Amino acid sequence: MSSVAEDTNHKAEAQAAAAPEIAPDNPLQTKADELGARGNEYFKEQNYEQAIALYTEAIETCPNERFYANRSFAHFRTESYGYALSDADKAISMKNSYTKAYYRRAAALMALGRFKKALADLEFVAKRCPSAKDAQDKYSECKKMVNKIAFEKAISVQHQEKSVAKMCRDLEFVSIEDDYNGPKLENGKVTLEFMKSLLDWYKNQNKLHKNFAYRILCDMETLLKTQPSLVEINVPDEQKFTVCGDIHGQFYDLLHIFEINGLPSDTNPYLFNGDFVDRGSFSVECIFTLFGFKLLYPNHFFLARGNHESFNMNQLYGFTGEVVSKYSQNMADMFTLVYNWLPLCHLINKKVLVMHGGLFSKDNVSLDDLRAIDRNCQPPEEGLMCELLWSDPHPLPGRVPSKRGVGIQFGPDVTDAFLKYNNLDYIIRSHEVKADGYEVDHNGKCITVFSAPNYCDQMKNLGAFITLQGNDLTPKYTTYSDSPHPSIRPMAYAYSLMS
C-alpha cells in the first residue's frame, strides 16, 4: 500500500517534514532531526526495525508529529497495523492539519479492512489537496471499495443459507473441450494420479478446467461440514507428522516443500496452518492443491483457517481478484462459503495445540470452549475465534493490545497458564514472518512456523516446517530458501490501493 501512504505532493511534504517546530538552535531538536534522518536512511534500505528504533529515539528526544508519522509508515511495512494506527493518531493529535498523518492512518485502516474510516481520512486529504490528482484518485477508489463491499455483503447475507453444493447444482457445468489435455477427475473424484498431474500442470502455468475446480469446491464444503472446530489428530508412535505455516500464494515454494519432505500420503501426513492465499499471486494454484490433497487423504491431511481465509482479507490482498481473473466472481463467492467451514485449531496426540494466531484475552479457556465455537461465519473482531486467528506472542508477562490492531499479544505466563489448565506440552502457531522460518518463544512452549520464504519477494526470510513423531513430540525444524517462480509479482491481483 505504499502508494496510499505516500503523500501526494512529495516536494511540499519534504519541505514540511524538514521545517523545525522549535528554534533551529535547539540542541534537542537538532539531535532528534539527526536521528530521524538516520531512520529515513534505514527505511529506504527496508530495514524497518532499525528505522523504528531510530524514530522512537527521536520521539523520546524531542516529540514531533513527523517522527510519529514516519514510525507509523515503518510499522505499516512490518504489518504492525495497530501500532501504525496508534502513531498516526498521535501525529494527528499533535497537529490536526498534518496531511501526511491522515494518509498514514488511512493506510493502516485499509489494511485492517476498515474502509469507511479510511474514507473519511482520504476525504480530508482530497479536500486539502484539491489539485492533487493522486489524492483525488485515492479518495475515489476508496469510495468505490466501500460501496463494493457493502453491496457484496448484502448479496452474501441474502445467500447465507445457500451452500456451495446448491450453488454448484444451480450451475450448468460446461462440457470439457476436446482440446483440454490437463488433469481430469476420475468419476468425479480426486486420485493420486490427478494430484501428480495437477502439480505438473500448475508448474507449467496452466489452469485447471473450471468443471473440476467447481467440483472440488463442492466436495470440500461437504467434507469440511463434517469436521469439528477443534480437530483431534492421532499420530502413531513411529510416524512422522509435518506442520507447515503460512504459504500465502507462493505455489513454487509449496512444491519445494513436497520435494524436500515428500508428497502427502497416508504415511506422510501434513497440517497446513492457515493463510494459504493472498499476497502471493499463485493463490489459486495453492488452494486447489491443498484442497485436492485434503479430499484425497481426509484423515491424513489437515487444513486450519488463518486470518486470510476471510472475505475482507481476500478482497484486499489479492485472492478475490485472482479468482475472478482466472475463473469468476461466482467462484470467489463460493470460496468465501467454503472457508467458513475450515477448522480453527488442531490437537496432536492430546498434547500439542496448533492454531494460526495464538492465545486469548481471558484466563481459563478450555479445549471444550474451542470445540464449542460456531465457526460458520466471517471472523469477528473479538472473542475466541478472532484471537485464534490473529493473536501474537510477546516476551513480557501479561497481555497487551495487539500490534496488528486485532487480537492480543500474550506473554509467557499466559502460555504457561493455558498449557497447565489444559494439560498440554506446547503450542504451535504461524501468522508471523520469521528470519529463520521459525522461532521458539516462551521457554520452548510457543513455537512459530512460517513457510513462505522471501515473503512477497522482499523479506529475505527462510521458510520452515516442523516435523515430530507420535512417540516423540519434540519438534524438529527444516528450513529452505525460496524457489524461482514466473515473473508475476506478489499482490498482482490485489485491490489497487493495497498493491
Q: If strands are numbered along the chain, what order do they take across the biggest sheet?
A: 1-5-6-10-12-11
pLDDT below 50 for ≥5 consecutive residues: which ranges? 1-22
Query: CATH class of the largest domain, please?
Result: Alpha Beta
Number of helices: 20
The shape, in one word, is globular
EC number: 3.1.3.16
Organism: Anopheles dirus
Pfam families: Metallophos, PPP5, TPR_1
Protein name: protein-serine/threonine phosphatase
SSE map:
Elements: H1 2-5, H2 10-18, H3 27-44, H4 48-61, H5 65-77, H6 81-94, H7 99-111, H8 115-128, H9 133-158, H10 164-170, H11 192-203, H12 210-224, E1 230-233, E2 240-244, H13 251-261, E3 270-272, H14 283-296, E4 301-303, H15 311-317, H16 319-326, H17 329-339, E5 345-348, E6 352-355, H18 367-371, H19 384-390, E7 392-393, E8 399-401, E9 408-410, H20 412-422, E10 426-429, E11 438-441, E12 446-449, E13 463-469, E14 472-480
Parallel strand pairs: 1-5, 2-3, 3-4, 6-10, 7-9, 10-12
Antiparallel strand pairs: 2-13, 5-6, 8-9, 11-12, 13-14
Helix pairs in contact: 3-4, 4-5, 5-6, 5-7, 6-7, 7-8, 8-9, 11-14, 12-14, 12-17, 16-17
